[in-house]
Design brief:
mainly alpha, 3 helices
Length: 75
């Protein structure tokens, strides 16, 4: 993040830059943007969802994050 001057950038810019420099694939970029949009406070995704929907979303997001291999490029 420091090397690419991304520390003070928005999450959208960070995701796009990680894709641009080849650290994440197009599929991962799309999934990250999906989660970014869904968790954006402006979207109010959880205003009408029940607790089970919220738990399911959280579990899906955590599984996605834990599956990322930080030792090399994500394909």
């Amino acid at each position: 993040m420091t090397e690419n001057n991304l520390l003070n950038q928005t999450l959208e810019i960070k995701i796009n830059k990680l894709h641009e420099i080849g650290l994440i694939s197009d599929a991962i970029k799309k999934r990250l943007h999906k989660y970014r949009r869904e968790t954006n406070p402006e979207a109010h995704i959880f205003t009408s969802n029940n607790q089970e929907d919220i738990r399911s979303f959280a579990e899906e997001l955590l599984n996605f994050l834990y599956d990322i291999d930080l030792k090399g490029p994500i394909v």
